[in-house]
Design brief:
Layout lengths: L1 E3 L5 H6 L5 E3 L5 H14 L6 E7 L2 E6 L14 E3 L5 H9 L1
Parallel strand pairs: 1-2
Antiparallel strand pairs: 3-4, 4-5
Length: 95
């Protein structure tokens, strides 16, 4: 479970032995996308962006700033795809 470090339920879950990943920021979809990006880059993966889907029709994206060709990172976080994805639209049209 991903939680904010100060969430009041942390102590209860810790006592119950539940696995947790604690963040200093609120665990929003945007912050989770950035976290995944940062961990993947730290592991040496050639990542240029992460899209984290919170529902079948809504996601948050974190991308490296392509204008600097990867020399720096830019927080281009945005909620996107609030409509239907092209894949889901095609799948529905095929049925």
């Amino acid at each position: 479970m991903i939680l904010h470090r100060n969430d009041p339920v942390v102590a209860v879950l810790k006592e119950a032995g539940e696995p947790m990943y604690l963040l200093d920021r609120n665990p929003t979809a945007e912050n989770i996308a950035k976290l995944i990006f940062d961990v993947a880059v730290a592991q040496g993966f050639p990542v240029v962006g992460v899209r984290f889907w919170e529902t079948p029709f809504c996601c948050a994206t974190y991308c490296r700033d392509e204008a600097t060709q990867g020399a720096t990172e830019s927080e281009t976080v945005g909620a996107g795809h609030r409509g239907r994805s092209a894949e889901s639209s095609r799948a529905e049209g095929a049925s």
